[in-house]
Automatic annotation (TrEMBL):
This protein's name: Crotonase/enoyl-CoA hydratase family protein
Keywords of the record: Fatty acid metabolism, Isomerase, Lipid metabolism
Iron-sulfur keyword on record: no
Similarity comment: family membership: Belongs to the enoyl-CoA hydratase/isomerase family.
Organism of derivation: Vreelandella zhaodongensis
Keyword Lyase: no
The protein's annotated pathway: Lipid metabolism; fatty acid beta-oxidation
Database matches in PANTHER family: DELTA(3,5)-DELTA(2,4)-DIENOYL-COA ISOMERASE, MITOCHONDRIAL, ENOYL-COA HYDRATASE
InterPro entries tied to this protein: ClpP/crotonase-like_dom_sf, Ech1-like, Enoyl-CoA_hyd/isom_CS, Enoyl-CoA_hydra/iso, Enoyl-CoA_hydra_C
Lineage top rank: taxon: Bacteria
Amino acid sequence: MHQIFNERVTLTFTDQVAEVMLSRPDHHNGLDWAMIDGLLAAQQCLTQLSGVRAVVLSGDGESFCAGLDMASIMSEAERLPTLLAPDEAGINPVQRLALGWREAGVPVVAALHGHVYGGGLQIALGADIRIIHPRARLALLEIDWGIIPDMAISVTGAGLRQDVLQELAISGRKVSGEEAYQLGLASRLSDTPQEAARETAALIASRSPRAVAAARELFARGPMLAHGDRLALEAHLQQQLLAGAEHREAVSARMERRAPRFD
């Protein structure tokens, strides 16, 4: 499957792994209206694809995403109010640019390099895993425009250090990929983040889908629960997996020294 949304966003699907690529390399994949529309359409497409077990999110060219291309956005200023208009779930389009990856229902691995600024960083925070080049540059540059980050960062960043996010939001300071990793903004470093993201997604896709989904639920819901409720959730999820068909197949594959086969 190869699909292009508004010539800005490309979605491919191979061997149970979907890849969404931002494709406006001559502008460091800056977010114009077509890019925004394309990303939202790609997210919607992911929710409808069957057989997807992992997603890679990456950017073409020298950068992942340099954030909003304000000149392009202001060229259609009449559309600006639509960006902050919430849908029936209370989520507006700019928030969905980050939160929408979670609706794919499978792990999303972001490959970050070059400029990862403003909206680009916030989109990346919506991914489950972020693999970053040591020399990438990250920043929340909304303060340059007298505004705050508003792409659901209060949700996607809830599990990260709040002092780190606050400093970046109120200073606009740029950090390297290596510092971002040290600050907990990235999962790990790689000199080839796109290749590493694809390898990680392929590895995840080879695992029990039910176990992967249970692990995602545990780490998404667990931090919001009281101590006892966390333990109860952990036990409940494990009980649902034990003796299930995928658990039996995983055990058999290990015992027989072969790759597991999950339908």
